[in-house]
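Predict the 3D structure for this chain.
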Amino acid sequence: METQLPGSWLTMKDLPESERPRERLIQHGPGVLSTAELLAILLRTGRRGENALHLAHRVLQTCGGLAGLARTPAYELARIPGVGLAKAAQIQAALELGRRVAAATPEERPQVRSAHDAYLLLTDMADLEQEILRALLLDTRGRVIAIPTIYVGNVNTTLVRAAEVFREAIRRNAVSIIIAHNHPSGDPTPSPEDIALTRDLVAAGRLLGIGVLDHLIIGRGRYISLREHGVAFHTP
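Done. Predicted structure below.
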């Protein structure tokens, strides 16, 4: 028997405007939305007794998060109660567009000019139940080369080795990187271990000739840039 989430019987119109994903996207931009909220916009509707947002949460849980959703064939998505072939096709189309952006020519690759630009490429990390460390690898013009996952588990200076962090950056000839990791608790406040790790990576980057531009800590719907907060980076 399925467990019904609290409030799942409410339609999206029953929710306050401040809690409706589509209205939040229009007012604040897509970067503030969780992965489940973005998926709810694609789904548009739920099913009897379950609105689109709760259906989105259930789809992500069934598939094992965004990465699992990306690997799930359309016919398997369609079997999830409340999804069906039409919604499965919409999800697959959106995922394919994301893949094509990632594989675009250098001129079409996303360009990162600020911490917020970087955060918009990493918003799926807000919903992950396990702590992970990723790196945005950038070329000379700040365009994204790749966004590899470097580490899964407790992210701190005693466990994360600089060699692992910079390996892909060296292999792909990146000139700079932005480090990001999530706090599954939802609170992006940096810990002393986060600050120590950042200092170590900045120092290692100087030795390797690869600039560490920032370290983002991602929580639920918000993030903290250590550089913008003047933590672990020398101010100009």
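Residues 12-102 form a domain with the DNA polymerase; domain 1 fold (CATH 1.10.150).
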